[in-house]
Amino acid sequence: MNKLFRSFVSKFCLSAFVLWSVALYILSSIPKGFPPSIPMIIHPDKILHFAYFFAGAFCLTIYTLLKQSRFSHQQRLFGLLILFVVIGAADEFHQSFTPGRSGNDPWDLLADVIGASVGILIADTVRKIFRKKSPRVPGSACDQDPHQ
Description:
By secondary structure, this protein is mainly alpha-helical. It has one domain. Helix content is about 70%, strand content about 0%. It is built from four helices and no strands. The protein has helices at about 5-30, 45-65, 75-95, 105-135. The two termini are about 15 Å apart.
């Protein structure tokens, strides 16, 4: 992957994640919600939680893996997962103060974490595919971790 394209993708993914974060806060602040009398585990709400956290994790993972770091590849992926668990828990806590929302729903948090996990894994797979197709440049971010 050439340097100009890597820079563009990195900036795009970081910008997308920042917009994702702002939108998450705004969406969580809107008073509404599904009626609490519907005790479904697989509810459209859970699919939306999965998809939303998938998108955020995908963007931040691509950004993180394109940047040089003193942390190993596995440490970065684990750190991203922990970050999204914290974001999901904070979002649920925030919703508990929003009128019309229940908040603190463990099933929503589970959907968030599963979505983020899949987003992280797919972003890592995409990076590996691009890494195999492009020539390695010594010292580049994609050439940093010999254990990949």
